[in-house]
# Entry
Amino acid sequence: MRIFGHQSGVGAVRQTSEAASDLGVKYLTLYTFSTENWSRPESEVRALMKLIVDTIEAEMPDMKKNNIKLAAIGNMDDLPVNTQKKLKQAIRQTAGNSGLTMILALSYSSRWEIIRATKLIADKVKMGLLDVNDINEDVFKKELSTAGIPDPELLIRTSGEQRISNYLLWQIAYSELYFTPKLWPDFTKQDFYDAVAEYQRRERRFGKTHEQIVKEINLK
# Structure
């Protein structure tokens, strides 16, 4: 029965991407399939992979029409060959679009990503391409799946869950978190607008005081 919930979630993806485009959001990342999801029943995993492929193909005309660029993060090598093929095709076909970049997190987990980045940096140190004393945040960020993508300003967690679930742990260090009891399949444009409106009411200080933020705003 869970697959029916996944199918219903496709509508929420459409609603959310349209709302993000309407508001001029540049990047929207969707946690589509985690590394932990591979442990689900095999039949459910197969159905999910097929749903991903079918959805990408079905949504392609609208993505082109709405100037949406598709991207993906995660361990793509773990995906079935046909899923990889269709995903790469869609990414190529939308590469020239300049509106919203919609990023699918597939076979993704933050711990996997951080370990992978660490190994890549270690290899560079081992080969003499990088000095260990030169390792900093900028060096590390370049080895993440999200290299070149800005850190999210807002993370929306649906379904009443109060956890991050191994998602973009490095990137959300200063993101605003928004929790809603709304189930993902029922998530609408208005729900997205409400989340953004709540975000706009918050003050992002990045470790600074309220007075410092006010002063910086007045100097602009």
